[in-house]
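Weekly puzzle thread! Below is a chain. First person to post its structure in token form gets bragging rights.
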Amino acid sequence: MITKRREYGPVNAKQRGFSLIELLIVVAIILVIAAIAIPNFLRAKISANESSAVSSVHAVQTAEITYATTFTTVGFSAALADLGDGGTKPCPGTINASCIVDAALASGKKSGYNFTYAQDASTTPSLGYTISASPQMPDITGQRGFFGDQTNIIRADPSGTATASSTPL
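Winning reply:
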């Protein structure tokens, strides 16, 4: 068997590769595009987290109505965890594990927000509660804080901490 010997000589114009300058220009263009796109992505992520927080506050408000209707002798739940499944599968549907909201929300942390719940235990059955959502890392996971209670009005505050006197959405 005869094999041909391949010669390596000068590079033809058709076989020419990219120069270092051309590669650096392409990298610079990619960096400029990334510098423009990353802040827009971060703003979109904050907006998505805030929308999720509003939906979660609304979910708690709806869940509390269901809870108070189901457990009429108790009224509103004593803790946010009571609206979840309590880690029990299948869900028992009891006062302490009513299975009305998802486990993430019942744990008090969801989509970059911390949820704080308080029951108004001054009457039996309980006739009031408050739910507030604040960003876990302000200006990174969210900017506004949200608040809700038995009035079913969601309120927002751009400072990150909303209260009953904040502006309604």
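Puzzle host: Confirmed. Bonus trivia for everyone else. The helical segments are 20-70, 103-107.
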